[in-house]
Amino acid sequence: MTANAADAQAPLQEDVTTQADTLRSVPQETVAVQADHPTSVLHVMTVNIHKGFTALNRKFILPELREAVRAVSADVVFLQEVLGTHSRHAGRLDNWPEAPHYEFLADTMWPQYAYGRNAVYPSGHHGNALLSKFPIVHYRNHDISIAGPEKRGLLHAVLRTPGGLRDVHAICVHLSLQESHRLEQLHLLCHLVRDEVPDDAPLIVAGDFNDWRRRAHDVLEQEIGLHEVFKRATGQAARTFPARWPLLQLDRIYVRGASVHSPRVLPRTPWSHLSDHAPLCAEIHL
Question: Whole-number mean pLDDT of the chain?
Answer without folding.
Answer: 87
